[in-house]
């Protein structure tokens, strides 16, 4: 099956960067488009009891820094794709369950292949933390290529 629109989620880690490189090379070989996704986990933080100790500007600064890091991750991934001569778009989503955001992005954007890294968590760590890649693999309606 020829693939035309690849999705590669990235968290900016070395393994994700490898997946971006592989996705860009594959997209170039296939003449496909590449969509890069970064998902920010939106974990609610309770400030009950310490709210008066935290200045609003501190929270704003944390949000701004997180946004800047996300944009830097996407820009680096876009540069990799452009270097491979691939048509590229990027997207930033916020979701406490990254795998849900990845699946939604693939579905909404009509992606026909997801290329993503495996972070190699095994044993108790894998059981406790879980694997976003594993969740995408088991729930995706399109093929998933896992880069190790």
Give a brief rundown of this model:
With 148 residues, this protein is α/β, with parallel strands linked by helices. It has one domain: HUPs (Rossmann fold, 3-Layer(aba) Sandwich), CATH 3.40.50.
Task: Describe the protein in words.
The protein has a single domain (5-147), classed as Rossmann fold, CATH 3.40.50.620. Helix content is 49%, strand content 20%. The protein contains 5 helices and 5 strands. The protein has helices spanning 14-30, 56-83, 98-109, 123-129, 132-139, and strands at residues 5-9, 33-40, 88-94, 113-117, 144-147. It has a 5-stranded parallel β-sheet, with helices on both faces. The radius of gyration is 17 Å and the shape is globular. The mean pLDDT is 88.
Characteristic terms for this protein:
single chain; 148 residues; alpha/beta; Rossmann fold; five-stranded parallel beta sheet; globular
Classify the beta-strand content into a percent band: 15-25%
The CATH fourth-level homologous superfamily: HUPs
Total strands: the figure is: 5
The appropriate CATH architecture is: 3-Layer(aba) Sandwich
Helix content: 40-55%
Mean pLDDT: 88
* End-to-end CA span: 23 Å
At the first level of CATH, the class is: Alpha Beta
By helix and strand content, what is the structural category?
Answer: alpha/beta
Q: Judging from the principal axes of the Cα atoms, what is the shape?
A: globular
Widest sheet, order of strands: 3-2-1-4-5
* N-to-C SSE string, H for helix and E for strand: EHEHEHEHHE
- Spans of at least 5 consecutive residues with low confidence: none
Tally of separate domains = 1
Given the structure, what is the number of helices?
5
């Amino acid at each position: 099956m020829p693939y035309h629109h690849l999705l590669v989620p990235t968290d900016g880690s070395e393994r994700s960067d490898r997946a971006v490189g592989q996705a860009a090379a594959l997209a170039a070989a296939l003449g496909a488009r590449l969509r890069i996704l970064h998902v920010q986990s939106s974990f609610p933080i309770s400030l009950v009891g310490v709210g008066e100790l935290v200045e609003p500007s501190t929270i704003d600064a944390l949000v701004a820094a997180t946004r800047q890091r996300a944009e830097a991750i996407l820009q680096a991934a876009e540069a990799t794709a452009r270097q491979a001569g691939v048509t590229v778009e990027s997207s930033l989503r916020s979701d406490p369950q990254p795998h849900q955001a990845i699946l939604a992005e693939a579905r909404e954007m009509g992606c026909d292949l997801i290329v993503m890294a495996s972070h190699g968590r095994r044993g108790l760590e894998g059981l406790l933390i879980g694997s976003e890649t594993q969740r995408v693999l088991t729930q995706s309606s399109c093929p998933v290529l896992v880069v190790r």
